[in-house]
Every structure is written in C-alpha cells, then in structure tokens.
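Methods — Computational structure assignment.
A single polypeptide chain was analysed. Its primary sequence is given first, followed by the predicted tertiary structure written as structure tokens.
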Amino acid sequence: MGRRRLSFASSIRARYSGNTSAAGSQWDEEGAAIFDARATGSSLAWPDHLGGKSADAFAGGRVADPRVRIVRRGRARSGRFSAPIRGGGGGGNASLELSSRTPAPAALNPWDVMLCVSGTAIACENALVVAIICYSPALRTPMFVLVGSLATADLLAGLGLILNFVFQYVIRSETVSLLTVGFLVASFAASVSSLLAITVDRYLSLYNALTYYSERTVLCVHTMLAGAWGVSLCLGLLPVLGWNCLRDRAACSVVRPLTKSNVTLLSASFFLVFLIMLHLYVEICKIVCRHAHQIALQQHFLTASHYVATKKGVSTLAIILGTFGASWLPFAIYCVVGDPDYPSVYTYATLLPATYNSMINPIIYAYRNQEIQRSMWVLFCGCFQAKVPFRSRSPSDV
C-alpha cells in the first residue's frame, strides 16, 4: 500500500513537474499532494482521468484558499477519491467526494422526520373525514360544509409536510422547495380561516337561532369560505411570486425562505384571528349562560341536567380555544421575536406543536359528532348501531 501511494504521488508530481517548490507544492509522508497555487496565482489543474477540470470548478467556486489535498482511498481500481477543500480563514471544512457511485444522501434531521410523521397522521385522519362528508348526502348542512373545509385544509397541510420532506431529501430544488413552502402557508392559513368561520357559524346559530336554518345562512357560509380560501391562496402565493429571501439572505426570517416582513404579516393575521375567536367564544358563553338562566326562571330552578349541559358546553369551548392557542401561539410569537441566527431547533420546537392542531381538529369537530359516527358505520360496515340516534344538530351543540 505504501508503494502504491508513493507511486501515485510520484505520478502526480511528475505530471506537475518542473520546479514544485516554485508552485508552493509539498509532499507528505502518506503520498498525498498538497498544492498551493497562491504563490503563482495560477489555477490548479486536475489529472485527465478526473476530467481535466480545475479545483475551483470542482469546488463550485466556494474555495476561499485554493489549497487542495488529494488523497487516494482504497484500491486503485475502486475509482474513489476524496478532495477535502481546506479554507483559509473561514474555519469551515468542506468535503468534495468524487465517485462513480450515487452520492450518499444527507443525514436525516430527526425534527424533519417528526414533521413528516405528523403530516402522515394529519393526512390520514382528515382524508377519512373528507371521504365521510362526501359519501354521506345527509351531511350537507352549513355546519358540515365548514367542517369539510377544515378537514380539506388540514389534509392539504399534511400532504404539504410530506412533500416538503421528500423534496428536501430526495428531490433537491430551490424552486420546488419554494412552491412547497407556499403550499404549506396556504394550507395552514386555510385551516385557521376555517376555524374562524366555524366559530362565526356557531355564534350565529345561537344569536339568530330562529333564522339560522334559511337560505341566507347558506349564502353566508359560502361567502365566508370563498373569502377564507381566497385570502389563504394569496398568502401562499406571496413567497412564490417573489416575496422571499432567496436572493437576500439578510432578509430571511426564522422560517427560510420567508422574509421577516412576510412572517410578521402571517403572525399579525393569526393574532387578529385569535382575538376574534376569543371574543366570539366569550359571547357564546354569555349566550349559553343566559339561556340556562332563562330556563331556570321558567322552571323556577335550574335542573341538574341543564347545569351539567351548560358546564359541559363552556368547558368544551375552553378546550377548543385553549388547544388552538397552545398550538399556534408559541410559533406565531417566535416568528416575530426570533432571529434567523438562532438555532433551528427553536423553530422546529415551536412549529411541531402547531402541526398538532391539524391532528386534533378532526377529533374535536368531526369524530365527536354523532352524525359522522353513524356515517362511519355506514361507510365501513354497511350498517349502523341502533343505539346511535340520528338527529340534525346545530353548530351550537358543542
């Protein structure tokens, strides 16, 4: 092996013969050649069997100090060479692997794996809800249209997380990655907007209980959904149409390639939606308590069943709003106060809980509903349990 290394080194030295000291070249005891082209200002040429390209061409123009160490690995017939590029004052080491084999894939980030797993679970859960609503003709009321919109948005968000993982580790392209980020922004924005539309629908079903089941309500629901999806689509197109930091790294936010101003707009929009939902749920609680008080006055006392129902309704509203806030608030706040120089683990640690909201939504808004439970039995078993009553429920039945 020693002879082989010396022979290889000798061949390279002979190839670049002349006065090797004039070019600043030196030879180590392992038979490796270290060339320093700075002394002559010339570009280092590679042997013909490596393509005859310059070291700068192999390094992609990233060589701060054109000092290249060529080390032969393995046997002569293996055809594998490694050329670590040793920079001058940058301190970072890059490695250039020249091989006839396919390059080894990048090491998997555990956070990216968890996001992909979360996206898979989200897609499976919400795909089932969308299938049930599309399969059952009885689920055509405004409430279920809104639930279907929420499930569709969460389904797209789950698929976006899976595609982001695939394009990050399998198909690497800045353009495709930018499209994926825009797709995720639009999907999560549609999910949050659908939650707001469901909250407005629940409030209207209590505030205008006598006129809720009318054509006006259907028109209102369709208008809300058109506005929600239209705004979400616009937010998703912003980074694709140029509002990104691919050409200006200094403008990047904690979520690359989104700019700081872009994530600030998204966070401000979320805070506005959260405040509106908080106000509406407070109003819903007031209406529920007022209805319970009126029932107590008519019956001269508040029965235990009404008290339990009222308490359960308020508790459910608190759980819904608390889950939504706990999922999204940390990420929205970090997007505003975070710096792109912070470790990426902070971004992952706040983004992952936000995806869990799309995983919890079908449990809160769909699987707890008796009509959807009955439709699941019909879809999978062709029958339904007689114990499950089938009755039309309003959005106020929380």
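Note: Strands lie at 26-27, 33-36, 67-72, 81-86, 93-98.
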